[in-house]
Structure formats: C-alpha cells, structure tokens
UniProtKB/TrEMBL annotation:
Residues 2-126 form the Formamidopyrimidine-DNA glycosylase catalytic domain. Residues 265-299 form the FPG-type domain. GO terms for molecular function: 8-oxo-7,8-dihydroguanine DNA N-glycosylase activity; class I DNA-(apurinic or apyrimidinic site) endonuclease activity; damaged DNA binding; double-stranded DNA binding; zinc ion binding. This is Formamidopyrimidine-DNA glycosylase. It catalyses: 2'-deoxyribonucleotide-(2'-deoxyribose 5'-phosphate)-2'-deoxyribonucleotide-DNA = a 3'-end 2'-deoxyribonucleotide-(2,3-dehydro-2,3-deoxyribose 5'-phosphate)-DNA + a 5'-end 5'-phospho-2'-deoxyribonucleoside-DNA + H(+); Hydrolysis of DNA containing ring-opened 7-methylguanine residues, releasing 2,6-diamino-4-hydroxy-5-(N-methyl)formamidopyrimidine. Monomer. The keyword Secreted does not apply. The keyword DNA damage applies. Involved in base excision repair of DNA damaged by oxidation or by mutagenic agents. Acts as DNA glycosylase that recognizes and removes damaged bases. Has a preference for oxidized purines, such as 7,8-dihydro-8-oxoguanine (8-oxoG). Has AP (apurinic/apyrimidinic) lyase activity and introduces nicks in the DNA strand. Cleaves the DNA backbone by beta-delta elimination to generate a single-strand break at the site of the removed base with both 3'- and 5'-phosphates. Binds 1 zinc ion per subunit.
Amino acid sequence: MPELPEVEVVRAGLEPAVVGSTIAGVEVLDGRALTRHVGSHDDFTARLSGRAVTAAVRRGKFLWLLLESAAIEPAEALIGHLGMSGQLLLRAPGAPRERHERVRLAIDHPAHGELAVVFADQRTFGSLAVDALVPTADGAPGGWGSDAPLVASQAAHIARDPLDPAFDDAAFARGLGRRASAIKRVLLDQTVVSGIGNIYADEALWAARIHPETPASALSTRAVRTLLVEIRAVLQKALAEGGTSFDAQYVNVNGQAGYFAHSLNAYGRHGQPCPRCGGAIRREAFMNRSSHYCPRCQRKR
DNA sequence: ACGTTTGCCTGCTAGC
DNA sequence: TGCTAGCAGGCAAACG
C-alpha cells in the first residue's frame, strides 16, 4: 500500500535513471492504466514519444516526470498514482513481461543507455496520464525533486505533505480546528495533508496517543503539535527503512521490499500487545477499512 | 462468497 | 438564491 515513504523510495529510485533520458517508445498493454489520461491511448503515446525527462517530482502519493517543453505551452508532465498496488520498475530493454504489466516505456539515457520503465498494477487503481503543469498557489516548488514552482494539474488540489519544506504547520492546525470529523478521517483527506494512508495514520495516532475517532477540532494545540511531530517521525523512519511491505504489492524500482513492517507498533497488530503498555491492540472497522489502536493508551476524548 | 485495500466522486446540509 | 466548505457513504477491481 504505497504511501508517502513508499512513493518517495520509488521516486528516488527512478530519478537517476530517467532524468536526462528520452522516451523512445510507449506500449499500452491495458487501457485501464490510463483512466486519468484525458485523450485516447494514441494521444498518450504520441505526447510522450521523443520527449526528454528533466525531473522526477513527488507530492504526497503523486509522482510526476517533468517533460522538456521547447515548444509546448503549458509545459507537461507524465503523472502517476500507484493506487493500492501499482509498481514502477526499471528493467533491461526487452525484459520479460511483469505480472500485471500495464504500460511500458522504453527510455534512452545518454550515459546509461537503454532501459525499460514498467508500470505494473494488480488491482488497477493506479494510473498514468500526460498532464499540464500549473503554477503552485504559494510560489514554492511543486514537490520533492524539482525547484520549479509547477505542479501537475491533477495534483494541484492535493495539499503539501508533512516532509515538504513549504508545508504550512499553522494552516494544518487551522484545518483540523475547522473539522468535526474523526482525526483519522482528516489525516486521510489528501486536501488537508497529503502522503498519509491507513498504515501511517494508525502509526502516528498510536505514537501521539490519540484515539482515531477523536474529533479533529477537539484536539488541543499541544496535541496537534505532538501529532505533527509523530507524523513526520514515522514517515521519516519508514523512508529510511525503504517503506512498508507486507507482500509483493509494494516494492522499489528494483523489485525489492522495504523493511518498515518490522517497526510497526499498531497497524496489523490486532490482538498483540501494545509495545508501550502491554494492552491488546484493537482493530475496528472504520471508513471501509480498519483502524488499529491501543484502547488503553489512546483514550477516546 | 466475502472481506480487504485506495483515492475520489456524489449528493447532501449548513452558513454566509 | 447561489456559492462554498464540510461531511459521510459508496464506488471501482482483483485476489485469496
């Protein structure tokens, strides 16, 4: 389940291979991978063919490759979202098809030669699109990986993520204060703060000792500050460990799993002892998914 | 056969 | 009356 740390691992892995390369060929094996592309599959292919890649950028869980744009205005990007099970893999040219392979790009790099960039996705919630770039609202860089104050239009409504230097802590606190919804739902709302999914929401709330159903507006200033500190800590630790992998669904660009699953304190640990107090971690249905928390050290209200 | 997982969309309400 | 923001529920798809 790729969230910010997993997507950043993918971006960082892609960056040295694709920046400076030219897209030499595009194969669309399954059109469902292009559901977010406005235009036909042929249009997608035509817009990418021959284009040079100048940067690999990420905001929250969105990833985009800036495309060189001598004559094209506004400038464009190849934007991707991995959804639940999407993978971007670097392979040798002519490498055998991946299981659930949807799109393959052939790239040519002046220093590294030819390479295949493969988009594979079991559940097809992920997608790729060629998208126009728009100026950022605050004039700051669009995301990690580029200084350009541009963001892919499909990611323009997505808030900055908590590891973004331009993330506005005060605006985050004001946003929580306006919302009566459960804090967990608000953390999962990518227009409030991006990059957090079910795993890191549960982990950050556990670390901050906040019950997932606490109304966001009921949190004290101090609790909000603690929560933000813990969100950043868990995201950074997961990033350092290469992300969280439970199965083959999340891997880096070389197909390798991450190690953060060993560091989880709450997520997926229902019935096991809370590492802090020894009480049993509880799992509850919430928003069509599961919340994992310690009822003893994350008291409601 | 059903539960699991994700972001996003839709339709509703409240308030200015 | 019309707009916006907040809100909650439900959807898509594949796999075990």
